[in-house]
Amino acid sequence: MHRSGPVVMAWNVFKFCTALRAFGSLMILLVLGIVGVSYYAVVVANYGPALGAGGIDSLLALAVLILFHVLLGLLLWSYFSVVFTDPGSVPPNWKPTIDEEIGENAPLTNLDFSNHILNLQQQGHLAETGNPRIRYCRKCNQLKPPRCHHCSVCGRCVLKMDHHCVWVVNCVGALNYKFFLLFLFYTFLETTLVTLSLFPHFIAFFKDVEIPGTPGTLATTFLTFVLNLAFALSVLGFLIMHASLVAKNTTTIEAYEKKATPRWKYDLGRKKNFEQVFGADKRYWFIPLYSEEDLRRMPALQGLEYPTKPDLDAQ
């Protein structure tokens, strides 16, 4: 099958990511290492000792430490939820509940469905990509539900795949996309807090004053400030991008694929689009969990069925 230039480039990128997969555990250790360095600089080296200073300095230190630990807990909770949550796999022997090819609403029997798929295979109507009503993965040799894509890194199809993230050593898909967004959100808040809290100490390096602390402590404070500033700025960019994707009910992959599509059939309005990722229960919006009620009444959270605009169902 002929592959265009951009597809070849994407394949080369995935081969690079496949090589990085061998360092999966190291990536998790790297994240924990950055957290550890930040913890030492903020808690051990600077604001922990300031608790005994008395006055306004003690109150400020207490406020910084409380906020730091709360955000750190939420960050790690969200991070490991992304790492250890399956992004969504296609159930064995999955098949559409309706004949989407001819638009009938009655469920297909196993015999009818098998004959229908056999005819489509013989006619060459099943493809890996594009916009057919029934989608088929030739690598997994199975049907693909709506919005499902094959991950060359994981070697399987992922429900509503957004991308493969080497930082979490996992795919980001239907079942852990919310957790990934919360990880970005709390990472931005935590790194911003660390940057602001260490800013006075960073400025002190460029003043002609004596700075208390050992050379190791001072070097750690300087490095932590620079690292967290860099992460805060970069994560902010990712947050803005994904906020735009959530508002339009699309994924990173879909945003690329539908460049030529003026209207997107899954775009149901910002409120409903948001709920398809975070759920309708506001109590669970800021933690990596879903309410049982949302999981029961919102099929989109399971990654297999998605409501669409009636006037755009033909897309």
TrEMBL record:
GO terms for cellular component: membrane. It is a multi-pass membrane protein. Its main location: membrane. It catalyses: L-cysteinyl-[protein] + hexadecanoyl-CoA = S-hexadecanoyl-L-cysteinyl-[protein] + CoA. GO terms for molecular function: protein-cysteine S-palmitoyltransferase activity. It comes from the Eukaryota. Residues 133-258 form the Palmitoyltransferase DHHC domain. Keywords: Acyltransferase, Membrane, Transferase, Transmembrane, Transmembrane helix. Its EC number is 2.3.1.225. It is found in: Membrane. The chain crosses the membrane at residues 20-47, 59-80, 179-206, 218-241. Belongs to the DHHC palmitoyltransferase family. The DHHC domain is required for palmitoyltransferase activity. This is S-acyltransferase.
